[in-house]
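User: Hi! I'm working on a homework problem where we have to compare a predicted structure to a textbook description. Could you give me the structure for the chain below?
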Amino acid sequence: MMVVGLTGGIGSGKTSISKFFKELGIPVYIADDAGKRLMETSVEIKAEIIKLLGDKAYQNNRPNRKYIAGLVFKDAEKLNALNEIIHPAVATDFDSWKVKQTAAYVIYEAAILFETKGAKNCDFTILVTANKEERITRLQKRDKSTREEIEARMAKQWPDEKKRKLADFEIENHDLRLAKVQVIELHENLLKQVEN
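Assistant: Happy to help. Predicted structure tokens:
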């Protein structure tokens, strides 16, 4: 089963691009959603997170996301430690999901695919890009975040220039209609790769 990694900075529109692939019949695994689900359902992960970040990391048996984000986005060591807890569990979960799929290939969507070396498990990688101001506007609408909060989160991710050197393909997501055309062309290209 061919695995195609899909990544892009926060607010680049990975979700929209993933939807276009789903419309073409391609299964999409969203690593961030899986990580959130595992934080809620895995007793082992919960115990490790509390050990790392303290009892306030969970409220009413659920992750206290605002508290966790407030700690890890200010402290690179804590962020790395949190990723070390969640990412191996997500990788195992993805492998279980992948064997159940029957499409020509699957999409593995992850915000920090290159940063966590997740791209090494992909046959190809796609980078979704959009200009910074556009991304900030999208995030302000979506999350009601302040510009300062958004820029702090952006600063924790690699810039597009660095990711561009590692990606096999790029989809510019400034206009959804044009982005959809790019997805269809890329899908056809990927189907050819599967046949080879």
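For your comparison, note the following. The longest helix spans residues 76-98. The mean pLDDT is 94. Good luck with the assignment!
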